[in-house]
Amino acid sequence: MADSELAGHWNWRERLSAMPVPLCISSDPFLSTCLETLAEGSRISVEDGVLLFEHESLPSVCALANMVKCARFGNYVYFNENLHVNTTNICVLACRFCAFRKGPRHSEAYALSVEDFIHRIESFSDKIDEVHSVGGLHPEWTIDHYIDLFEGVRKRYPHVHLKALTAVEVKHIANRSGLSVRATLKALNDSGLDSLPGGGAEILVDSVRDRICRGKESSNEYLQIHGIAHSLGIQTNCTMLFGTVETTAQRVIHLDRLRKQQDLSGGFQCFVPYPFLPDMTRIPEAQLATSTEVIRVIAVSRLMLDNIPHIKAYRMNIGDHTAAISLRTGADDIDGTVGHEEIMHEAGSSTNLDTSAHELARLIEQTESIPVKRNSIYSTFSIFDGDNHEEIRTLPIAGQA
């Protein structure tokens, strides 16, 4: 199978216009208009994005999102074999939604040395192709620490793609080191940083950020930092944390701001939405998103983000069960084997952390999709050999029925 086909490098709008239209869409004037808008090369407006969130028929919205996903990627669903390693849980901020952060004197506070970080990869190094690493804003570390870290990983595990640092971490490192964001990213990229995971977007509306994460980078700064990364050839993901205090309209504004940034810099490769998990956090006014709401967010994201290729079902947060459903409602990517994860599990996730590639492929196949193993930047692909699958375990997170 040619990489171009596996990558979805075809005219998806043309394919969309030629696809059979389910009755639930053709009989709905609004959804029919949305389909026509996308097929003709136009964009779902902010106003229509709100209406999609409010539409009375979730199955119909999901059917339209699945059409777009299939027009882009056919029946393929992508994954990789990765490991999460967090550098530190010590942070100078105290965001209200974060259960991971610890003060420097907390009994559970830690800060990995370069040697400890590399050691955590060792037992997984023959199974993974990516390390995903984010952490707190350490009060003492400068760029020198991260250069030593990334150079150490590159030297020891040259085959491993290093996807690390949120935008606010980049800003913090730059400030601590007396450097510009551009100079910081350039130096880190030269030392072994391959891409940015995109975390920390939360909601790109500053009135929301002031309530849940005061002191973090502003909405504009998040977008600017990713734009600078894109200008340096560093690809990034982008995210959305929903279900705290934001309105539906603010979610749509967030999606619109991401696609406008993509129009400018073009380096977002995947969008990762995930709901707020309330355990051990400090937002009593927030409400836990139901699985139904998670699925709607994924579906509407697929319809609005016409210029961001991939939509990820982040199973570390939404659980395997909801992630599997979302593969038929707009998502084309499911976060990989992971191996280890702390941030979501500190907040209440109970998703399994020892899923093998065979198990993950089996989960994908149970949705009548074809599992495709990819690299971190979606440039190489192979259809996963489905022989000798192990028994799959689907463990939704606590409280999401």
TrEMBL record:
A molecular-function term among this protein's GO annotations: transferase activity, transferring alkyl or aryl (other than methyl) groups
Entry keyword set: 4Fe-4S, Iron, Iron-sulfur, Metal-binding, S-adenosyl-L-methionine
Annotated ranges, domain Radical SAM core: 77-309
Cofactor(s) annotated in UniProt: [4Fe-4S] cluster
One Pfam family in the UniProt entry: Radical_SAM
UniProt xrefs under SUPFAM superfamilies: Radical SAM enzymes
Lineage: unclassified sequences, metagenomes, ecological metagenomes
Source species of the chain: marine metagenome
Keyword Zinc-finger part of the UniProt annotation: no
Protein name as annotated: Radical SAM core domain-containing protein
Magnesium listed as a keyword: no
